[in-house]
């Protein structure tokens, strides 16, 4: 069924009328371990309706063909729409609200339009940046959600820098820690300096750099200042666009060869990063998690640590869990893993567990972390800090 979105100001202040409605109302539930969460939206017209889009939870029902349980009801005699859920007390999730005059269909095309149209909650100041052209989301953190102590910038903590550059024809952002000494001009041509130098920095390659370039610095600064990790450089290659991302992050060997054979030597020459795989992490989320694991499979001599979050280990449709079987059938490689997945990720949870179990059975050093949340950047930033801390424990 087609739907007609309503136009609203999605700016920081939101529409003036919506400012009268605060963010979600969170109350204890009679059910142990749960909370009642009421979302509210002030309608701009008599025919306006609204749908609550909680990351992964709403999408699960969309896949089942029925989002009726996420449609707000009007409080009689008012312009207020609201909907109450009973949710686990440790849930963390991003969410949006879709104002509309007709409830959208659950087919893929309709849902793609929903994702490009839905808005953050104007009554909730906590935001999660959007990606790939989408609006920001709002952040819901229930009282029992695990702390994310490294997420936000702390006053007085020395700040690193994020530089924008180009490596082998691709845009890349580079986070350098406070006091970083590159020891060379990033523009030095290839072949004029050795690939490694004494005292080189540990390095993390964080895929989908266009998503993370504006978010990673406070986390890295805080981890370094607290002594959880040594000063570390982060390389953030651009995913370019959606078609390129879908091609390159589906166990695409040419992309991995680019990372190992072009990006890493470029960074060693210009940013003084190590060539030691034991001090190198490749990290990613969703298809990026799959690609990080594939990169270590193809180039273990360059990538000795994998940080995978919500990895798409179901891939591919023609040959499900292809990479898991490749690891199972191949000799153990000198690679360590931190695998993280949300318990609400009904399409990925078991696949991530099987991947971690397969690695453990082969003798790999692997940790598996699960959180109460979905396929969600609101969870990934905190998990990224935890995973990097775990992998870097022996670097200090």
Can you tell me about this structure?
With 396 residues, the chain is α/β, with parallel strands linked by helices. It folds into 2 domains: 18-141, Immunoglobulin-like (Sandwich); 161-391, Rossmann fold (3-Layer(aba) Sandwich). 27% of the residues lie in helices and 24% in strands. It has 10 helices and 16 strands. The protein has helices at 57-63, 108-117, 209-212, 216-225, 242-248, 253-271, 287-298, 322-329, 349-361, 377-391, and strands at residues 25-28, 34-42, 49-54, 73-74, 80-88, 92-100, 127-128, 137-141, 161-167, 170-176, 203-206, 233-237, 280-285, 305-309, 336-342, 365-371. The strands form 3 sheets. The chain has an 8-stranded mixed sheet, with helices on both faces. It has a 4-stranded antiparallel sheet with strand order 1-2-5-4, with no helix packed on it. Helix 8 packs parallel to helix 9. The longest helix has 19 residues, at 253-271. The termini are far apart. Belongs to the Fes family. One of its GO terms (biological process) is iron ion transport. Residues 36-149 form the Enterochelin esterase N-terminal domain. Residues 10-24 have a biased composition (Low complexity). GO terms for molecular function: enterochelin esterase activity; iron ion binding.
